[in-house]
Amino acid sequence: MINHQKILPCPFCGSTNVKIDPGNSMDNIPAYVFCRNCVTVGPSAPSDWEAKIKWNLRENNPQMVDQLLNIRQVSYILGVSRATIYRLLQKGNFPKPIHPKGTKLNRWLVAEIEAYKDESTMFRNQSDILQDMKWN
Question: Which of 34, 39, 47, 110 is most buried per CB count within 10 Å?
Answer without folding.
Answer: 110
